[in-house]
Amino acid sequence: MLSDLERKEIEEELRNYPLPRACCLDALKIVQRHRGWVPDEQIADVAEVLGVTSDELDGIATFYPFIFRRPVGRHIILVCDSLSCWVMEYEKVFDALVKRLGVTWGGTTADKRFTLLPISCIGHCDHAPALMVDEDLYGDLTEEGIGQILERYK
Amino acid sequence: MSGAIQRPAEKPLTGIMRKDGEPVGIREYEESGGYAALRKALGSMTPQEVQDIVKAASLRGRGGAGFSAGLKWSFVPMGQKAEHPKFLISNSDEMEPGAFKDRMLMERNPHQLIEGMVIAAFAIEADVAYIFLRWEYQKCARTMTAAVREAYAAGYLGNNIAGSGFALEMRVHTSAGRYICGEETALLNALEGKRAIPRAKPPFPQSHGLWGKPTIVNNVETLCNVPHIVKNGPAWFKGLSLSEDGGTKIYGVSGRVSRHGLWELPMGTPIREILEESAGGMRQGYSIRAVIPGGGSTDFVLPELFDTPMDFDSMEKKAKSRLGTGTMIVLDDKTCPVGMLHSLEKFFARESCGWCTPCRDGLPWVARILASMEDGSGRPEDLDILREHTWLLKMRHTYCALAPGAVEPLQSGLEFFAEDFRRHVEEHACPYRAGRG
Known about the structure:
A: alpha+beta; Arc Repressor Mutant, subunit A; Glutaredoxin; 2 domains; 7 helices; B: Rossmann fold; Ubiquitin-like (UB roll); 3 domains; 17 helices
């Protein structure tokens, strides 16, 4: 079941689009904002609101990487592994993260604090290597500086 | 340079920006001459006249393809018989590996983009405009949303814009990842709430685009040029350039250079000048081997061709590459070209939308082979498989330009760095590995 708040927010968002299905990413993001991820049951609920089938909506949910169809940690660390960050040796930062968190790509820490994921070029190439934590962007990363960044996310 | 022409601003796109990196607000923008072009176009010109001067200015698409913006607009059905609503979309889905110019334009001068979009929408008689942003550009989303609100309040959006009778609604749409959303027909599917898979062309979006209605999709930098062309005229715009293509260009450099960054320079500034004067040359201890000149899907260019002007035609004809996004990535002597290509092809394999077989199956194969070379298990016959893929995945063998773009650096990389590939296979190891971490 969608919560009353989720339903209300989705209905508000629907007004921005001429057809309900155009709102599907926004609707999925609303669910994700409240729950951290999008469970099967809510796929079915949102599909009903938008007038599409669950399978159709799941096809969309699984196409876009920032709709999570599995539980994730409270914070998402997105490490850019594309061209400029690779040239600037993002792996050193990544290795430091792995050591610190005890998880690798796709993993969630035991305390559910962080999930570690790769991300494709985030357009911060002049400050490579770069990463995002949730919606925040960090650049010019060093192995030593990584701890300080993580401390901001509890 | 044309001496007879007054050049009021050498750097129109970045001329109105704050030193602290914060966005220019609406009042500041207006005080610096902002929205004067909008008043001029909507108040004293016809849509056809706006199209004509943009065409005359030789403004070519800054997203990478380089198609004439004015010509693109001219394919939109106009007048009484045209279907409505018509749409104007800013392709703000910048995601080419190594490209970061549109982020800067949106974060630092959001009203320049809005003004360009309103004028472009007027030129094609559009009713609704969308700013299609990638999820990762969170600061852009906040900045653009606030600026759109300011523009509504000031009467530059909504009904009867600046008293002209023209009406335009503008929305910011934030997506949820995926490089393919930057392909204009995939972008339309994404906006319609579908999987972002490219559409077959024809019909072209200009006549049958978003929800089947006439639609123009333009890159951010392209749209940001429009107010300046309207304000100063096509002769002025062409005078800014060192080449046949009009205007300035935002060039960028990343990799092991002294200064990373973005610089607005005359279109057609030579590669070497950007690398040495703007980026300050290489960092101490590194020397340059090649550049990927225009974002991830362009061919490598070797130093002997660094005198090539960075404009659309010279980069194709002389350097056998492409201008693309104009944001270069430098390959230095301590970085493995095979590893660099692996990083690139891994990106493209991950970002393939999966719709057509050559791309969906070919790119992961290429990426796996490159990974095997890096870890020392590459075989001599793998080189033939890589070479074969540069043909299998080329233009017209696939549904869209993603895979053909992906194999551009691969084909030149195989040629220019043949010795590096050979050593990976023969030595069963990456010869650069010791130098990296």
